[in-house]
Amino acid sequence: MNSEIQYIYSHRAVAFLDVLGFQNKLQSFEDEAIKFHRVMKEEVALSETEEDDEQLGPYYYSKSASEFIETFDYAISKLDKEKFSYYLFSDNICITVKNINSRGEKSLIELLLVISELYFEFVQKGYFLRGGIDYGLFIDQSSIALGVPLATAYKMESNLAVFPRIILSTDFVKQLEIYPSEDEKEFASVLESSLIKNSCEFQYLNIFNHIFKIEEKELFFKIFNQNISENLSLSVNKENIYLKYKWLADEFNDFIEKYTGELAFLDENYEATEEHIINVKNMKISYGH
User: Fold this and answer.
1) How far apart are the first and last CA of the chain?
2) Burial 192-228 (b: 16+ CB within 10 A, else e)
3) Is 231 in contact with 242 (CB distance < 8 Å)?
4) What predicted TM-score, i.e. pTM, was given to this entire model?
5) 137 in Cβ contact with 11 (< 8 Å)
6) pLDDT tens-place string over residues 96-120
7) Are strands 129-141 and 166-168 parallel, antiparallel or unpaired?
């Protein structure tokens, strides 16, 4: 044992995310891979000749599993590797970031924006995320992730998130509110000021806030409408699951109210026309049965 090696703690934010209902997807991924292998094996058998000695044998491949991984890679690829670390294991995603809050850099806000983008990328593939984010001392190296924040974020995801939402710990929110200068007003922008929502004792990420970074805004609302509505329909006879998507539908409808009533007009990068406002209002989800 080399006693000279030192594993140093640093202050980091740690996000632990889970893909809702993903366990059922894992089996479908495997079934798809087995089917692909069987079909490929049959095709290889039919085309085999004496000259095919160097041909690779059939393998297991799932297009759906590959798309899931590509979705993760696409959103994560935009992260600054100097500040962020990330891990994907089965249906769990862990993202950590150094607390850089100087010279205009706000890495904790960047983390929230990245998770909002990741959430939207997964929604387009029919998946929804839930999770927790904590802040504290953490050992984060290439093959090591150790510390209280990860355990806390995991417990938040497992016990508190319940719905498809990302819960923020008190310690994380406290750090988020610390800024180097009173002259910096970036947090007052519509993009950042609408990042966090409150519900009783919980604070959580407003994932619909990603609209302010999207050019095709009506498509954004349409995608959420279609995927939430579809999951409501599929789970109508499974109350535990149905209530999760009903909560998300209510959040979505509430955001549309705020967006069409105020937020859309505060966006400096987009001119909200009357037609746009009407179209977005029509995106509200109706789930009465």
Assistant:
1) 64
2) bebbbbeeeeebbbbbbbbbbeeeebeebbebbbebb
3) no
4) 0.87
5) yes
6) 998 776 555 588 988 999 899 999 9
7) parallel
